[in-house]
Specification:
Blueprint lengths: L4 E6 L15 E6 L1 H12 L3 H7 L2 E6 L2 E8 L2 E6 L8 E3 L1 H9 L1 H16 L19 H24 L10 E2 L2 H11 L1 E4 L7 E7 L2 E6 L7 E5 L1 E6 L2 E6 L6 E5 L2 E4 L2 E5 L2
Antiparallel strand pairs: 1-2, 1-3, 3-4, 4-5, 5-6, 7-12, 8-9, 8-16, 9-10, 10-11, 12-13, 13-14, 14-15, 15-16
Helix pairs in contact: 1-3
Length: 266
C-alpha cells in the first residue's frame, strides 16, 4: 500500500512562494510520496533572503508521527514535532524522504539484526528511535549545547529588555506622525552580503524588525527586535531593544549597525 502524507504549508502560498506573516496555513491532505518529494525540492530552492524574511516551513503527518521541515543552503532540516527535545537532522531531499516513509528506520533495524547474527549469544535491544542520539557526533552535541545556552541567554535578555530601546543621550525620538511617514520609506530588506555568515535586517515598522544571519547549512538565525525611530544629529536612526548600538540611516538605501554596512535589496 502506498504511503500518503498529510501536509501543511506554513508561510507559503499554493505555488510554494514564501509569504511573510501568512495568516492562513494551506492544508494538503493525503498527498502521494511523489508529490511530497516535489514540495521538498521546491522548498530547497527558496531564495535565502526570502527564507529569512518569511521563515517558511512544511509540516508533515504520517502514521503516528509528525515533523516540521525547514530549509537552508539547499538542505532540509527535519524536526520531530512530537519529541521536540531531539536535535534536527540536516538532510538531502532523498534522505528526508527515507526518514518520512520509514525506509531509513527499516534499514537501521536490519543492520541491528545482521549484527546480532554475526555475534552469537549477543543480546540485541530494540532499535533506537529514528532520531537517536547515537546518530549525533560528540562535536555536534557540543555545538548544540552551546547553541542552547546562547538561546537561553537570548531569551532572558529579550524578556528583560523588550520594549526598552537602548539609546544614547543624544538620541531624540521623532513624533508619531513623522515616524509613520518614515516607516514607509524605510521598509525593506537590507543585507551586508548574500554569503553564509553575513547579516541582514528586515524592517517592516519600528516595532517589527528582524535581524538575521545566513547559515552555511542551517536556516538563517533570526532575532526579533522592536524600537523607536529618532535622530542623532543629522542621521535618522532606530534605537532597538538589542545590543549593537543604533541602526543608523547613513545614505540612500543604506543602514549601519554594529559596525557593518547594510544595503537595501531591490
Amino acid at each position: 500500500m502506498n504511503t500518503t502524507y498529510n501536509v501543511s504549508l506554513v508561510n507559503l502560498d499554493a505555488n510554494l512562494r514564501p509569504v511573510a506573516g501568512s495568516l492562513a496555513t494551506i492544508e494538503r491532505p493525503g498527498i502521494s510520496e511523489s508529490d511530497l518529494r516535489t514540495l521538498l525540492l521546491s522548498l530547497c530552492e527558496i531564495d535565502a533572503v526570502e527564507n529569512a524574511v518569511a521563515e517558511p516551513e512544511i509540516r508533515v503527518r504520517v502514521r503516528n508521527e509528525s515533523y516540521r521541515i525547514l530549509t537552508g543552503q539547499k538542505k532540509l532540516m527535519l524536526f520531530d514535532a512530537i519529541r521536540r527535545e531531539l536535535p534536527a537532522l540536516v538532510l538531502t531531499v532523498e534522505e528526508a524522504m527515507a526518514e518520512l516513509n520509514g525506509s531509513a528506520a527499516a534499514a537501521r533495524h536490519a543492520a541491528v539484526l545482521q549484527y546480532s547474527d554475526v555475534i552469537p549469544g549477543e543480546t540485541v535491544t530494540q532499535p533506537t528511535p529514528v532520531h537517536s542520539v547515537e546518530r549525533a557526533s560528540m562535536p555536534r552535541l557540543v555545538v548544540l549545547g552551546a547553541a542552547a545556552l546562547a538561546l537561553v541567554g537570548a531569551l532572558v535578555y529579550l524578556q528583560l529588555g523588550r520594549d526598552r530601546p537602548i539609546a544614547p543621550a543624544a538620541f531624540q525620538p521623532v513624533t508619531p506622525a513623522e515616524a509613520a511617514e518614515l516607516q514607509n520609506s524605510l521598509a525593506g530588506v537590507y543585507m551586508t552580503g548574500n554569503q553564509p555568515g553575513q547579516h541582514g535586517i528586515v524592517f517592516n515598522t519600528a516595532a517589527d524588525v528582524k535581524l538575521f544571519e545566513l547559515g552555511a547549512l542551517a536556516a538563517p538565525r533570526v532575532v526579533y527586535a522592536s524600537g523607536t525611530l529618532g535622530r542623532t544629529g543629522s542621521h535618522l536612526a532606530l534605537a532597538t531593544d538589542q545590543p549593537g548600538g543604533l541602526i543608523e540611516v547613513t545614505g540612500h538605501d543604506t543602514l549601519t549597525y554594529g559596525g557593518e554596512i547594510y544595503r537595501r535589496i531591490p
